[in-house]
Amino acid sequence: MKDLDILLTNLLMSIGVWGYILSCLCIIIESIIPILPLSVFITLLFYKFGVFIGFIISYIFTIIGCIVSYNIFNSKLRIKLDNYIIRKDSKNLDKIVKNIRNVKFVNLSLLIALPFTPAFLINIACGLANVSKKKYFLALVIGKVFLVIFWGLVGTSVITSIKNPINLIYIGLLLILCFLISRFVSKKEGIE
User: Residue range 21-34: average pLDDT?
Assistant: First the structure.
């Protein structure tokens, strides 16, 4: 993984401004096809544009990618899944879909904020389960703030991030802040 991070970083930095444009597009693609390391692209944008602008660019493109992914799976694919459940009378699958649909807003926000949670799975699950667009979008807007901050400030190495106790403290503090903000929004918007 570290070799891939280094290879991608060197490649993107060697092609100038196109590397940063490609990074933005890769952030969107990563939300749909999880073969790319999101951390590399966010870190590169933080490095090039600084903490504030790098954050804004990474955050916007991460949100766009997740919304595109959610909408793909919430449209025709969800209808096919619903028809499959009805046709096959699959009570287990129906139960899983209902559990995902009924996940609490605060829990969804925290799940999105976790740095090592695969975003594409959350997008797919929420889209297929027809989680309300308002609930999904607000959880995404809150959770991605902390995810982007983490990857932008910690860097690309997952192994180093896990082994360094300071980074674990950052993750904990970011998740606590995410929890508090999610609770506030949940009560204010009446989202459960």
Answer: 79
